[in-house]
């Protein structure tokens, strides 16, 4: 039984899907932020509550976007892992006479 089994294509595909998922999340958050902006400019307008709600929702959106951006770190890790494993395999193969 082998201790290492690596599919570069699967690792790279997962990295790609993470990047696409991150982009979808950020796009959705931006869309929802715009929806809230429209709401507090017409359907929910008060002297204090709507202003505070807007501030709170904006903070939430920014926090969620930062969290989504961490998917970039995971995506990069997976890409680097695939590259490192590929390079290691080539190096080992080159040492075999």
UniProtKB/TrEMBL annotation:
Q: Give the Pfam families listed for this entry.
A: WXG100
Q: What is this protein called?
A: WXG100 family type VII secretion target
- Source species, please? Leucobacter tardus
